[in-house]
Amino acid sequence: MVHQAAFLAEWPWERLGNYKYWVYAPFLLKLFRTTFLSTHPEADNWYFYMFALVIARYTVQQAWNSVTRFHCFSQRYEIHSYAVGFEQIDREYHSDNHIMLQFLLVTLAHAWFPSFRNMPSWNGEGLLWVIIFHAGITESLYYWMHRAFHTEDLYKNYHSFHHQSVVPEPPTGFVTTMLEQLLQSLLVCVPILGAATMGTASMGLIFAYVITFDFLKCWGHSNVEFVPTWFRNLPGAKYLIYSPSYHSLHHTEQKSNFCLFMPLFDYLGGTVDPKTDSFYAELRKGNDEEIPEFVFLAHCIDVLSSLQIGFLFRTLSAHPFEAHWFLWPLWLPSAIATTIFWCLSQDTFVLHKYYLYKLKCMAWVVPRYGFHYFLPFGLDRINDFIEKAILDADEKGVKVLSLAALNKNEALNGGGMLFVKKHPNLRVRVVHGNTLTAAVIIKTLPEDVKEVFMNGATSKLGRAIALYLCSRGIRVLMLTTSKERFETIQKEAPAKFKNNLIQVTKYQAGQNCKVGHTLFHSCLYSLKSQTEYKHNTIFPMSSSIFVCCE
């Protein structure tokens, strides 16, 4: 976090990592004792309601994350595309600090203020008072507080941490320093305390206000312009409720649109961005369909790993897969969803978008799991999915589509050759990991190479390299004891280049290569090999191939 030396810039449990959740332990113990062990349980079931509220708040944030990251829901009115990286996700990992802080504050209020005890489940009069206190006090104080945090010193020491996320996502709204969140939490308490002072507070009111507050925070940071034109054109609507594009301008410009939820205070303070209306109108026209330059066509692996996708668990998707303990309770409902997914899915879907250097890339997913690729009766349907994805990519103008994992299985479609032969006029380049690796290896070799020696030359990767090199007039010494496999590859070579493929059966055949380049895998590069190929340059390669070039 930025400027940790500043007063209350760092959270007290920040260095604890995930151990911070032990803060809840005493209260959970209290809930257990009063519910199951005590002969005199709490009259208002305070801790039960508070933990229910905590769970509901996590659910709101999770739901918003899923909706905004699900491409078919968000793409048409998305404000900024291809902009959120793993660095932002890591920085926003602890976007629940406000939930813990406000849980502690409200629990203290319950202990200190008698009006917070034994509240009824619902009191409709309190709703009016909450609206009055929120609009009259919370909104106005937040507006001026927010403007203050954009002054030089406060911005540098505190608020700049929040604004590192130029393109917001739902969790971004809760990622602040402790001082900011403490002040904001006090403002959240104002309408609740106001209703309690008027004798109209209720547990339902606390639920409704806090959940609505979180909902609107996520709404404004959603990066998707959900607000329909007819709603914004209602009399007074644009003064009473902000839109995602309204707050997005605050993150990009940082000198306007300071309000909490009600733009009225920006209009009164003269801080409305002049582009607000035109920006909104342009977004509501809808975005054209995004055309990536590269598509990675993947598939689901298993039930647990499929939970680690961006529109389910945002943070987990930014880290290598691990079968976390808290995922196992989700296995059964996920397995049921898998079955429904299998029966009803009709097309591939966009998993996520990303930049690779300056290339726009997408990951598309075939709606099948790993085990489906071993069911003989379902293979034709899988190939139909893959073929349709290739044709869609070709029609849209995608430059390269890569078949991932089992989508390139030789037994399924010949590593993609089935589709290339069936549609010879494809403009999109259909590749997979092996062909890309072969291309990288070939690109690495110097142009003046005359002869190469290859181990593992009859593998899928070795075959591709050998055929390409021999067609360039390069002699390829293919190390293999299988004459049948060698001859199969030799038959694929153009007639006038067949003699460039030569079968050898011993490693020593590569010793005759003069000083040049050698591609070796570390597990094959023994001390003996170092001696035999000491005049050659060594390049790490795949687990089964090395090439030594004259």
Automatic annotation (TrEMBL):
Coiled coil (UniProt feature): none
GO cellular component assignments: membrane
Alphabetized GO MF terms: iron ion binding; oxidoreductase activity
Domain Very-long-chain aldehyde decarbonylase CER1-like C-terminal: 452-522
Location (main, coarse): membrane
Family matches, as Pfam families: CER1-like_C, FA_hydroxylase
Transmembrane residue ranges: 99-115, 127-145, 185-211
Subcellular location: Membrane
Membrane topology, record value: Multi-pass membrane protein
Single GO biological process annotation from the record: lipid biosynthetic process
Keyword flag Hydrolase: no
Keywords, ordered alphabetically: Membrane, Transmembrane, Transmembrane helix
Location of the Fatty acid hydroxylase domain: 133-271
InterPro entries named in the record: CER1-like_C, Fatty_acid_hydroxylase, NAD(P)-bd_dom_sf, Sterol_Desaturase_Related
Family assignment from sequence similarity: Belongs to the sterol desaturase family.
UniProt-recorded name of the protein: Uncharacterized protein
Organism: Ceratodon purpureus
Organism classification: Eukaryota, Viridiplantae, Streptophyta, Embryophyta, Bryophyta
